Amino acid sequence: MKKRLNLLPIVVVAMFCLAPRVPADESSVKGAQAAAEAWLAIVDSGRYSESWDEAAAFFKQSVTRLHWEEAVKKVRTPLGKLVSRALRDAQYTASIPNAPAGEYVVIRYDTNFENAKSAVETVTPMKDKDGVWRVSGYYIR
Known about the structure:
four-stranded antiparallel sheet, alpha+beta, globular
């Protein structure tokens, strides 16, 4: 059974295709990927409140902690434990529809959970005002 997590801060992947892409150095993509994987580890362990704490300012302005906790729990719990996650691709962009201008990396993972063998997770870190990469969007398909 496929579940969808569809919250305000979540990047609409189809609209991403319309966003202009700009070249980025490999270290930006690697930094964003490291942030995404650290954040996903928090979510994978069920520490949803902490995942909100560690998210980008834009994410926190878009969804309350309580709404985030309820929504992610509702979607992730039925999936069961993480079995595997493999990087599919990562795309750097300077803009995302319905999000502030900035630096983003849209990262997709092919993910297997106990109860969902072929999910695709999209995690979108953005460079926050303090220069640190933090997750601004999360979507499971």
